[in-house]
Design goal:
The protein is mainly β and 272 residues long. The protein has one helix spanning 162-165, and strands at residues 2-6, 29-32, 39-54, 61-77, 82-89, 96-98, 104-108, 113-122, 128-135, 171-179, 186-193, 206-213, 234-243, 248-260, 265-271. It is 1% helix and 48% strand. The longest helix has 4 residues, at 162-165.
Amino acid sequence: MHASIRALAVAAAVMMTLVAAARPATAQWQIDSKDGQSSLKVGFLVQPELELLQTADQTGTSKNLFIRRFRLLFGGTLNEHWSFFFETDSPNTGKASPEPSGGSTGSKDQDVFVQDAYVTYSQGHAFKVDAGMILLPHSRNGTQSAATLLAIDYGPYTFIDSGPCGERAGCDYGVQLRGYPANQPIEYRLAVAQGVRGLEARNPLRITGRAVYYPFGAETVFFYDGTFQGTKRQVGVGAGFDAQDDPRIYSADAFFETPLFDRTQGVTLQLN
């Protein structure tokens, strides 16, 4: 038996509010310059969780009440061409650490690290450059905001490459080209990242790419949404790859959302 209950969610990067069931935030702290060219946004994401998990010998129940994610977020724009985003993460804070045998030492995890840190140069929707510590774009679920997940967490294989490649939940150091040309029915992302450097850092760099077709117009943000809460119709069909020498990752995904009942409800489907 495994039950996980998200008690509270604070949604949307650089936004702050307390809501249930991962509803997008409606408030934020933001400072704008007088000319409107520059802005600074500050927020946080907190997701408390209650987890009840049957022990390996099936004789008891492990109980954890902890913070699945606690993130501090900073973002903003310098002018029409330059923007930035930075966030920390402290995952599973207070959760008892399991042993490889399936038991638990009872010690509580507590760690803080940089999750994302990048700057973006933009020449309109058709051409953007992201540089820093970024989510690599080989799937929709892997490039999705943690604040908008429909499930309590990402898919079990979404970040299967993170451990072997030394990533932070899909993030690596690199540069990415991104754009939405031809009036935005198409999205492209092409990234060059560190990957596994190997002995004396001789390994080739890691190449990751992704293309998406949107019949109703592209999502022109860095982090994909998990749902629009029935406020719009959106369809996206994408494919990606990730390569560094011999290792390869290939992916395909689809996203569908449509409003119902005069946009007061909606249906959302995602396949990765």
